[in-house]
Amino acid sequence: MDTEPAPLSLLEKAAHVLGAFEGPEPRLSLTEVVRRSGIPRSSAHRILDQLVRLRWLDREGRDYRMGMRMLELGALASHHNRLRRAALPLLHALHEQTGQLVHLSVLDGAEVVCLERIGGSEATTVPSRVGGRMPAYSTAAGKAILAFGSPDGVEHVLAQGLRPRTARTLVRPYALRAELAATRERGIAFDREESFRGVSCAAAPLRGSGRAIAAVSVSTCRGGERELARLAPAVAACARAVWRELYGAGRAARRPSAPPRDPGPAVPARAMDNMLGWLRFSEWM
Questions:
Q1: Is residue 3 part of a domain?
Q2: Is the pLDDT of residue 89 over 70?
Q3: Whole-prediction pTM value?
Q4: Which of 147, 152, 150, 148 is nearest to 170 (CA)?
Q5: Which domain of life is it from (predicted)?
Q6: How far apart are CA 231 and CA 203, in angstroms?
Q7: Within this chain, do residues 172 and 271 fall inside the same structural domain, yes or no?
Q8: Which of 14, 70, 161, 256 is the most buried (most CB within 10 A)?
Q9: What is the DSSP string of 182-226?
Q10: CA–CA dist 36, 58 (Å, integer)
Q11: pLDDT (tens digit per residue) in 183-206
């Protein structure tokens, strides 16, 4: 016996409405949106009004077109995809070199978002995933980006409050500021069991002579300053290699900055499809 398909959720209806704008016409009327999306007229009208209020769409008379929020996120998704493609082979090389779990992360407000995860011997013990979020202040990747980012970024993190995740989490503003200053001095950030008990991490920022746009990190369950010091040169070299892959040597060479102190060997070298595809970047771990 045939069963009727389950009704679409509100999110699925909104995705269908946004999908109507994938054609060559930049502006669509309500009638055209209904025809392309298959969503009933009354529902489509309510969803369109909500999307306009949220800046996903703009309204011009009786027509609708993509709004600034859609364009902003589309550009950001395109940038993240380019970053991930450039970094992926180098992240694999870093994993092969260290045998440890490797992450590529970006800063989003007061949190870091994992764009890529290359599993290693510690993969089952570190509860991270692609799209997962963590507080920036308790992670090496977050501290690497904050140390070489805008001062406003640090103030935003502090305004959200520093809550302990383990007994070793830095929860006093002066302690975090001092750690970020030390990170700028050595070019490497460390997480000394500040996010998860038994897990330490070293991270290096992706940057030329300006602000960091992301960070590469390696996690280990072996712990200890000696292990972090062993991993630091390889992490820093990988971050530099990813930057060169993205922008070439010329961009950094025009305004050179002091390199991290890491004499170790170098590591061998469409915009958003729909709203659903972007939701994974807003999920909590």
A1: no
A2: yes
A3: 0.66
A4: 147
A5: Bacteria
A6: 9
A7: yes
A8: 14
A9: HHHHHS-EEEESSSSTT-EEEEEEE-SSS---EEEEEEESS-SHH
A10: 18
A11: 999 999 999 999 999 999 999 999
